[in-house]
Automatic annotation (TrEMBL):
Keywords: Hydrolase. It holds the Pfam family Hydrolase. GO terms for biological process: DNA repair. It comes from the Bacteria. GO terms for molecular function: phosphoglycolate phosphatase activity. GO terms for cellular component: cytosol. Signal peptide: none annotated. InterPro entries: HAD-like_hydrolase_sf (IPR050155), HAD-like_sf (IPR036412), HAD_sf (IPR023214), PhnX-like (IPR022468). This is Phosphonatase-like hydrolase. Transmembrane segments: none annotated.
């Protein structure tokens, strides 16, 4: 299923359209399954640092976590810790440790068709940037667990780019790192409203939502998605690229 929104013409094959040469892709929920794993790691962080005082506070915390999916995790924990930087840092460390253990246990898997889609894009000359709100070590663990250490041209985290989502820093850092000519040659793809906002704020040719992760079709539309796909597996077709 592909829902094409008004700015879809920017991905057309017309003579005056800029070719897409860079795809900036989110990880958890977009190319890698989430299935509640991020929330599971947040619950481990809460257990370690007692961020929520009672069940009502815990539910409010999880609501905030869901709204801010895609953010740099330390930014989320600074909010949850009420500005206590030491507590936020400890909670973030507990979260990253818990998520890496989840990865080590084999719970994170490829979104069906993700690797094939990325291979098709790269074969067609489209560079791949993998971005995440996790720490560098967790991103590396995720990629290694799937045998994806060489699947992207560049990998980025907020710590490497400046600021995390919904700011445009990671997308623009990817553009610079890959020497992409213009934002008109770049697309941004993700499963959260914050991924979409990153694409919109970066000036990318398209901000493409996928329905395999945290946020709904309506949330992605409200954030400004130019296209919504059932899955990353549908991305090559949107770009007119055939699978091998």
């Amino acid at each position: 299923m592909t829902i094409t929104l008004p700015r879809s013409a920017r991905l057309s094959s017309s003579a005056d359209a800029a070719p897409i040469t860079l795809a900036v892709l989110d990880m958890a929920g977009t190319t890698i399954t989430d299935d509640g794993l991020v929330e599971q790691a947040f619950l481990a962080a809460n257990e370690a640092e007692q961020l929520a005082a009672d069940d009502d506070a815990l539910e409010a915390m999880l609501d905030y976590v869901r709204v801010t999916m895609g953010y740099s995790k330390i930014v989320v924990f600074r909010h949850l810790a009420g500005g206590n930087e030491d507590k936020a840092q400890r909670a973030n460390a507990a979260f990253e440790s818990a998520y890496r253990q989840i990865v080590a246990d084999g719970a994170a898997e490829e979104i069906p068709g993700a690797a094939a889609a990325m291979a098709a894009l790269r074969n067609a000359g489209v560079k791949i940037a993998m971005t995440t709100g996790f720490a560098v070590e967790t991103q590396t663990a995720l990629l290694d667990s799937l045998g994806w250490s060489d699947i992207a041209d560049v990998t980025l985290t907020p710590a490497q780019a400046g600021r995390g989502r919904p700011f445009p820093d990671m997308a623009l850092a990817a553009l610079i790192a890959t020497e992409t000519e213009s934002v008109a040659n770049m697309i941004v793809v993700g499963d959260t409203a914050n991924d979409i906002l990153t694409g919109v704020r970066s000036g990318a040719a398209a901000a493409i939502g996928v329905l395999t992760g945290a946020h709904t079709e309506q949330q992605l539309k409200d954030a400004g998605a130019t296209h919504i796909l059932a899955s990353i597996a549908d991305l090559p077709a949107l770009l007119g690229i055939a699978l091998p």
